[in-house]
Amino acid sequence: MSEPASLWRRPATPDAINARMPGTTPGLLGIRITAVTEAGLEAEMPVDERHIQPAGILHGGVSVVLSETLGSLAATCASPPGQMVVGLEVNANHLAVVPKGQVVTATCRPLHVGRSTQVWQTEIRRADGKLACVSRLTAAVMDPPSKG
User: Fold this and answer.
1) What pTM was computed for the model?
2) How confident is the model over 103-136, as pLDDT tens digits?
3) Domain of 50?
4) Residues annotated as region Disordered (predicted)?
5) For this structure, is 89 an active site residue?
6) Other C-beta atoms within 10 Å of 96: how many?
7) Which of 42, 44, 49, 68 is catalytic?
8) Domains of the chain: total
């Protein structure tokens, strides 16, 4: 019996991915990849003054940033070297509030990994494990623009 093909087409480790974060939106928000598994990516993010809306809870737009970050990173790692990935659509359902002071965890898994499109779903959970947000990113896999 042969081994199943790996999801990942490019080498990826949490340390290598996190090293690219400083000075970017994910880095400024404190998003940190905690695991690269055969099934997807895992991350965590604190919920502090950078992440809340005026009511003192996690801003829905920040949840979308976390989801799009994980989906884009995963799609890139699952694409052939030399290809680039761009987001086409992202949606999110916010299911539970997350108060300031918690750390959310996120798990991103593929729904579809095709040659030209990919769909990734991210579940964001509160510290108590309750599902706070579920989001889906559709990405296009394409040749990079020509330099000319």
Assistant:
1) 0.93
2) 999 999 999 999 999 999 999 999 999 999 999 9
3) 14-142
4) 1-21
5) no
6) 14
7) 68
8) 1
